[in-house]
Design goal:
Layout (H helix, E strand, L loop, with lengths): L1 H14 L17 E4 L5 E7 L14 E7 L5 E3 L4 E4 L9 E2 L3 E3 L4 E6 L4 E2 L3 E2 L12 E6 L2 E7 L10 E4 L7 E4 L10
Parallel strand pairs: 1-12, 8-10
Antiparallel strand pairs: 2-3, 2-13, 3-8, 4-7, 5-6, 5-11, 9-10, 11-12, 13-14
């Protein structure tokens, strides 16, 4: 059954679904219910709060979340359908991702610096707290907000990240050598 759901959601991503009718002007669903999604397609893979040695396009050392395409297929994430947040329980539609093409087994870095802009890189409208957060990734399926992935992290010191032990793995670890946009070690 899980494989059937995974294939169905993968087909939805690749089919180029049109915009949904229940999206408001700010790209958030006007109503929604929560459903647990196709585990494994796209993962929150690593994140840093409080800075690492990675600098954004403006030269600043900022917080970030890394997404990972955990499939052997190219995925199109449509604008207004995908959301990331720093608090999946209270604000699941905090930041609408722009349209993105994720190549197989590739990484996408989203800066969590509060700039709310897309220049050469994606900058969300929120920052991560180094004292801990509950980030999440959601898909808006015709008004049903599907939880694709989420995690909870505690305090993160400067220059450390919270990462999956291996790309897409279930176990999370504190990483002393952050690897944004690269494979986790």
């Amino acid at each position: 059954m899980k494989n059937l759901i995974l294939m169905f959601i993968s087909a939805l991503f690749l089919s180029g679904i049109k915009d949904i009718n229940s999206v408001t002007k700010n790209n958030k669903p006007s109503h929604f219910s929560f459903t647990k999604g196709a585990d494994g397609i796209i993962k929150l893979n690593e994140l840093a709060a409080g800075g690492t040695k990675k600098h954004d396009e403006f030269g600043y050392e900022e917080d970030w979340i890394e997404l990972y395409n955990n499939t052997d297929s190219t995925l199109k994430l449509e604008e207004g359908k995908w959301f990331i947040t720093d608090n999946y329980k209270t604000n699941p539609c905090q930041y609408a991702l722009p349209e993105i093409i994720l190549e197989p087994n590739s990484y996408l870095l989203v800066w969590c610096d509060g700039l709310n802009t897309v220049e050469n890189e994606i900058h969300s409208n929120f920052k991560l707290s180094s004292s801990g957060e509950k980030p999440g990734l959601f898909f808006n399926d015709n008004g049903t907000l599907v939880t694709i992935d989420s995690c909870t992290f505690s305090s993160l010191p400067h220059s450390q990240s919270f990462a999956r032990a291996a790309d897409g793995a279930e176990n999370w670890v504190i990483n002393n050598k952050p690897s944004p946009g690269k494979s986790n070690h």
